[in-house]
Specification:
This protein has one domain: Jelly Rolls (Sandwich). The two termini are 18 Å apart. The protein has no helices and 11 strands. Strands 1, 2, 3, 4, 6, 9 and 11 form a 7-stranded antiparallel sheet that branches.
Length: 108
Amino acid sequence: MAIPTQFENVTAIAKANVYFEGKVVSHTLLFKDGSKRTLGLIFPGKFHFGTEKAERMEIVAGKASVILDGESETRVYGAGEAFEVSAQSGFAIEVGEEICEYICSFLD
């Protein structure tokens, strides 16, 4: 599945979601079918995110090293790649020198 380059007919929430003292910032998109995605930036650093719902993280630009909770293997994802995270779980993500841009889709 190709990573989207644009979204049409959505409602964009102007207020940003800001995490880790501004090192991770996203904006929420609401779709007519009731689904939700976020578009975001991860600045260089190491971060851990917990999940309530299952998520699909698609890397738009840059790259990130990821370790899913419960696993020991680090995987590197670059532009055009994606990974999924189970509900009630989480992942550690590390971004090096360049900003990582992503789309997060919340899965049912």
